[in-house]
Amino acid sequence: MDNLKVVIVGAGMGGLTTAIAMRQAGYEVEIYDRVSELRPAGAGISLWSNGVKVLNRLKLGKEIAEIGGQMDRMTYVSKSGETLTDFSLHPIVETVGQRPYPVSRTDLQQMLLDAYGADQVQLNSKCVAVEQDADSANAIFEDGRRATGDVVVGADGTHSIIRSHVLGQSVERRYVGYVNWNGLVPASPDLAPKNSWVIYVGDHQRASMMPVGGDRFYFFFDVPLPKGTESQAETYREELAGFFKGWADPVQTLIQRLDPAKTNRVEIHDIEPLPAFARGRVAILGDASHSTAPDLGQGGCQAMEDAWVMSNALLTTNLGVADALKRYEAARKERTADVIRKARERSNMTHGKEPQETQQWYKELEHEDGTTIMDAISRTILKGPLR
Prior knowledge:
The chain is α/β, with parallel strands linked by helices. The protein has one domain (5-173, 270-382): FAD/NAD(P)-binding domain. It has helices at 13-24, 49-57, 61-67, 90-96, 105-116, 162-167, 236-243, 249-257, 287-290, 299-315, 321-350, 355-366, 371-382; strands at 5-9, 28-32, 44-47, 73-78, 83-88, 101-104, 121-122, 127-132, 137-141, 146-149, 151-154, 174-186, 196-202, 205-212, 216-224, 264-270, 278-279, 282-284. The strands form four sheets. The chain has a seven-stranded mixed β-sheet with strand order 5-4-13-14-15-12-16, with helices on both faces. Helix 1 links the parallel strand 1 and strand 2. The radius of gyration is 21 Å and the shape is globular. It starts with a strand and ends in a 5-residue tail after the last helix. Keywords: FAD, Flavoprotein, Monooxygenase, NAD, Oxidoreductase, Purine metabolism. Belongs to the FAD-dependent urate hydroxylase family.
């Protein structure tokens, strides 16, 4: 379809990727966000090859390669410091045809803003409702302004307002069962090799370091805790030192080296797979449509896949906007439901939902040569729209 106007609510990773894809498709694009300053949630993201392929198709391959980390190996280590398995990730690259690029979320968002035009994002625009008729759709903002287009895209995150319009009801998020602390530290060999993703495991907890651009590690700590456990930045270091007492020296060094003021603490939630992603001229994508636990590293990648599939659905049908958005929904609903379910299953195994399963996983890692892990990652990547 030609000459569409697309209104996008939300200027995070999914919204910006969608804006770039829609504009490259030849559509007029307006993008809005409720915040007064764009700051990404979280410190880093493991951008696997399916997400990178979307960026390649959007002519951003060179840019993502420049800000991405060089991740050549993957290593699991016991809490006492014994290597359980260590292997090259090169077979994944050979199988799927593209390197992964772990990246700082700030760098990724800036790259997308540069590609779209940061001055073209309309801030201080909190969407409170959506309306539509046979000919147009409107995003309505808190201050009374309205943005009218042929399509309204809800890229407004896990607490999405537009999701409620699409479904006709609100959706409660589900606590997955663990808390994640994450941030960035300078890369250093006393923490981990600079080209390896290193994960320490034990006691149903994890401590991880992954190389990102700028000679830094993206780190995270996972601890199963009851929902609503109180915490504040001033005590992060002491809390982590307690949770990871007796763990190997690099974990202790990381805890001492992190900056609590720049460390994020997140209670991890997901949502049940949704019955619909579109209603008439309105559609949702990214965390609005399939908020998932980060245990497969696929949240951002799925939002990028959404952007590509939606823009192509609009380009390749002449039966109208509603038809195109239903085709987008049909292409994405089961794919993203599968990611939600598998991320939840992996989270349960990793974080001791069934303690015997977690102990068995630790034992299996001692005999793992990387094949099983890489096969699972490759299968997830290759189910995407760009092979």
